[in-house]
Amino acid sequence: MNIDKYPSKLLENAVNEFSKLPGIGRKSALRLVLHLLRQDTETVNYFGNSIIQLRNEIKHCRICYNISDTDTCYICGNPTRNNSVICVVENIRDVMSVENTHQFNGLYHVLGGIISPMDGISPAELEIDSLVKRVDQGEITEIILALSTTMEGDTTNFYIYRKLKDKPVRITTLARGVSVGDELEYTDEVTLGRSLANRVPYESSIGK
Predict the structure, then answer these.
(1) For residue range 108-140, what is the model confidence (pLDDT) as tens digits?
(2) 203-207 long-range CB contacts below 8 Å, 24 or more apart?
(3) Is 59 helix (H, G, I), strand (E, B) or coil?
(4) Considering only CA atoms, which of 75, 70, 77 is closest in space to residue 89?
(5) Predicted confidence (pLDDT) at residue 171 exceeds the cutoff of 70
(6) What's the predicted TM-score (pTM) here?
(7) Which of 13, 118, 150, 161: CA 20 to 30 A from 88?
């Protein structure tokens, strides 16, 4: 079938929407839509409703800004976690990556991105001030900067360090088992776990 000529406008509309997803071309989108057409109505309705419910009902944790079904995520609400240590990450995928290592039992702080002037992302658009407020509450003893080892990640690390360096909190960063230029979510669990366990003072990572 020539995918530029569809037998149905409804089919074409569905393919158009699927092809807007990251990494999904029109041929892949067509395969996905045709797969759904082969399913029973109940299955397709459940699929569609789960996406609608996700978009309408998902929340961000009021403490760490991780995604959650409730106002406080299951990590922040877990009394067995070490609430004196915060691991600072870029996004939700990084929380999942760190959790999969089973090497960290503290809390998180999701920035919602990293500083990137080229993309128009400034510190004011990230959850940095809220991180400072958490430190100012006086219960935090260590901040682990666990951002990607890219130029943007390093810039964000340094900005946060400057905001926190005069406060009574230990600031550490991942050991360089994570290669320069790597994004956290693509680092294997063993390497990431070791980098967490062997974290170093941030000052030493910048040559001070």
Answers:
(1) 999 999 999 888 999 999 999 999 999 999 899
(2) 203/171, 205/173, 205/176, 206/158, 206/161
(3) strand
(4) 75
(5) yes
(6) 0.82
(7) 118
